[in-house]
Amino acid sequence: MKRYKPTTPGRRHYTVEDRQMITKDEPFKPLTKSNKKARGRTKGLVTVRHKGGGNKKLYREIIFGEEKLKVKGKVKSIEYDPNRSAFIALVSYEDGDWRYILAPNNLKVGDEIICNDNVPLKEGNRMRLKNIPIGTMVYNVEIQPNTVGKLARSAGTAIQVAGQEENYTYLKMPSSEMRKVLSNCFASVGQLSNLEHSLVSYGKAGRVRAKGIRPTVRGKVMNPREHPYGGGEGRTQRGTKRPKDIYGKVTGGRKTRKKDKYSNKFIVNRRKKK
Prior knowledge:
By secondary structure, the protein is mainly β. About 0% of the residues lie in helices and about 25% in strands. It contains one helix and 19 strands.
């Protein structure tokens, strides 16, 4: 973690994650494209609040699945990606193709990686869950075989392989939830890079605005037509027994998960309450 001297009020609590493993500043142009976003608007109407503005950024095309099955690749660079919290790696494959992948914590330039059914247990390699030993940390895990990785894709995350049973593999999620996934699903070995991402202090409002995040206004200081908490003379209570969002829906403790959701049968133990 990099800290700065408090030369200005904005620098006093300003921190930046450690980026020593990054080896290249500019992206590989053939794997980038424009990233025009709606910024929370649909036909000009605000459909998602607190979004807008932000610095321009190119989208890096990353492979999350098995597009390069049985093809060896060599890591050429580790790069920063403004579209996600983890770092990414530029890989050159034996067939002449170049691709971006999510970079695990200990991946270095020059390392060789491969995706196959059963490969050496090496950080960055991708293989089926049934061939991964119990206790191994994995990331970018598939939910359905031969699709793309969906679980554990953000900075510093990893899932522990907790057990094997017939056609299923038991996984201990970062939230402590125990879930079972089909053993034919692929997963990458290791823990994702940028472990200090959750510890970063932005230090000033301008740095948050540069990420495309607009201010959040309290409901009780709004007018009654804008929020259920609005109105009243001076500082008043919210006026509702249960907390609600801007649309009047009950929030703060109410369970919103569907009771008959398809994935309920795959959850062995719910996450523990803090």
